[in-house]
């Protein structure tokens, strides 16, 4: 007799769509998984389904397997000669915890159907797709058309954790995988940067919502349908050839594709989708504006010091390559929390970057722009513009000399506020706030002064370290030298 309702730990149920599926539900070996569920075709009615979730351990040795379907040794028994011993499986992605449907049949005879279907990508192995409460809600197995046995997937829960799953059973001959079952620990096919025409497979993904607005584009959180991995996608409307936006987009893609630094965001891949150009990037926990809004740096000087060191290393890397970012601001510095409580910071959004030799036009974000950008005296733009911007970020993040509350409507107001912070609580990095860019410290200068050259890209012998310009006060403690907020 079936349960009156799905098990509390069941994530979803498989509801039969054809006679072959009803035979599976009524198989004696599957009785313990059957419960009453809401009819997917009529919410006012009820039917029966096979519960899949964390309520029972799978016969598979992988703790990430929810259930296997197959002819022999599977969690859900499916009879018939056209069914492989282990035909398909539902598995949890070990990092993102997305539910994946794997085709493990010898004849590749598992497929998804319906309006929400995103069929298996034929060129990818292993054959797998994400299933969730909106995507791939019907599937079939067996036969040339993969429709000998067809189920609807009816979801019961959207919030779950792999920690709810019971421990797997000990290894023994009964729980061993069958010969034709592909191991679930197959390496994930990771998205790689497109450099040539060899990679023709389009990246398919589910939009998980907007997470930011970059220069010329929107950034969304996305899940790869074929791998279950999460990443960020910058979506930019494809601009007219030779337009300013086209040149900026081309500049960003080409610049970042050449870079390799732990504190600069990586472009994993790019593709054209309709009228939008898409840039795939690693997904981070957020940008530091969120940390600033919650006064994290004010309360954790060690984290502030780590941010300073990592951003100086990133800017030194850019400067040595002759590149100016030109839009260094909190929204363009991403962070990822690490297990030890520290953070990895990365500089992102290179839509306004340029080679120092070519930099002449006005660019950047108001409060953070270096004064030379507004002087209109024809002075060349240099990577030291980014150093000024980084100093302003710290004045703002630590609210030194009440920086957040000062009027910043004009260039002179901004200079006055920055100088007050430099002469107050940020004396340890005041060389970054010199109005004259010729006398302003470089990223390499500050790395040598504060961090003994740790992470330096510029060869030490090429750093014009001028003791007359750079304050030679003891380098440690560093951010701990910051005075009380509002000093």
Q: Short description, anyone?
A:
The protein has 487 residues and is an alpha+beta fold. Helices cover 19% and strands 24% of the residues. The chain contains 9 helices and 21 strands.
Structural class per helix/strand content?
alpha+beta
The counted number of beta strands is 21
Shape: elongated
Low-confidence stretches: 168-199, 355-364, 466-477, 483-487
Q: Number of DSSP helices?
A: 9
Distance between the termini: 74 Å
Task: Give the assembly state of these chains.
Answer: single chain
Spatially, the strands of the biggest sheet line up as 2-3-1-11-10-8
CATH class of the largest domain reads Mainly Alpha
Q: Whole-number radius of gyration?
A: 28 Å
**CATH superfamily descriptor of the largest domain:** Transferase(Phosphotransferase) domain 1
CATH architecture of the largest domain: Orthogonal Bundle
H and E string: EHEEEEEEEEEEEEEHEEEHHHEEEEHHHH
Here the CATH topology of the largest domain equals: Transferase(Phosphotransferase), domain 1
Average pLDDT across residues?
85
Largest sheet: 6 strands, antiparallel
| Fraction of residues in H or I helices | 10-25%
β-sheet strand percentage:
15-25%
Total domains: 3
């Amino acid at each position: 007799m079936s349960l009156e309702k799905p098990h509390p730990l069941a994530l979803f149920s498989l509801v039969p769509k054809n006679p072959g599926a009803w035979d599976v539900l009524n198989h004696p070996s599957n009785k313990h998984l059957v419960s009453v569920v809401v009819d997917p075709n009529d919410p006012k009615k009820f039917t029966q389904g096979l519960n899949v979730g964390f309520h029972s351990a799978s016969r598979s040795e992988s703790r990430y397997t929810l259930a296997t379907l197959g002819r022999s040794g599977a969690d859900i028994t499916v009879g018939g000669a056209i069914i492989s011993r282990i035909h398909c499986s539902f598995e949890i992605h070990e990092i993102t915890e997305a539910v994946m449907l794997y085709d493990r049949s010898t004849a590749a005879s598992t497929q998804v159907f319906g309006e929400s279907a995103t069929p298996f990508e034929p060129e990818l192995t292993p054959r797998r797709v994400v299933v969730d409460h909106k995507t791939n809600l019907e599937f079939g197995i067996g036969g040339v058309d993969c429709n000998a046995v067809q189920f609807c997937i009816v979801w019961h829960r959207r919030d779950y954790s792999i920690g709810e799953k019971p421990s797997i059973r000990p290894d023994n001959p009964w729980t061993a995988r069958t010969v034709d079952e592909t191991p679930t620990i197959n390496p994930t096919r990771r998205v790689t940067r497109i450099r040539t025409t060899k990679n023709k497979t389009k990246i398919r993904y589910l939009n998980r919502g907007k997470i930011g607005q970059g220069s010329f584009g929107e950034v969304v959180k996305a899940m790869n349908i074929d791998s279950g991995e999460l990443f960020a996608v910058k979506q930019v409307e494809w601009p007219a050839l030779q337009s300013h936006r086209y040149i900026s987009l081309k500049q960003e893609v080409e610049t970042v594709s050449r870079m390799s630094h732990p504190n600069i965001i990586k472009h994993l891949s790019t593709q054209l989708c309709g009228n939008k150009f898409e840039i795939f990037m690693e997904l981070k926990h957020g940008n530091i504006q969120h940390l600033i809004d919650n006064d994290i740096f004010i309360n954790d000087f060690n984290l502030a010091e780590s941010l300073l060191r990592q951003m100086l290393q990133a800017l030194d890397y850019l400067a040595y390559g002759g590149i100016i970012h030109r839009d260094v601001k909190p929204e363009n510095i991403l962070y990822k929390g690490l297990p030890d409580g520290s953070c990895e910071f990365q500089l992102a959004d290179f839509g306004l970057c340029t080679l120092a030799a070519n930099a002449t036009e006005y660019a950047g974000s108001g409060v953070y722009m270096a004064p030379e950008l507004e002087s209109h005296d024809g002075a060349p733009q240099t990577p030291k513009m980014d150093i000024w911007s980084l100093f302003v970020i710290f004045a703002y993040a630590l609210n030194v000399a009440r920086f957040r509350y000062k009027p910043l409507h004009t260039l002179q107001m901004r200079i006055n506020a920055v100088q007050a912070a430099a002469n107050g609580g940020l004396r340890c990095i005041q060389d970054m706030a010199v109005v004259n860019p010729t006398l302003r410290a470089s990223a390499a200068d500050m790395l040598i002064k504060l961090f003994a050259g740790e992470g330096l890209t510029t060869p030490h012998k090429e750093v014009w370290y001028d003791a007359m310009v750079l304050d030679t006060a003891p380098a440690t403690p560093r951010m701990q030298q910051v005075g009380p907020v509002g000093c």
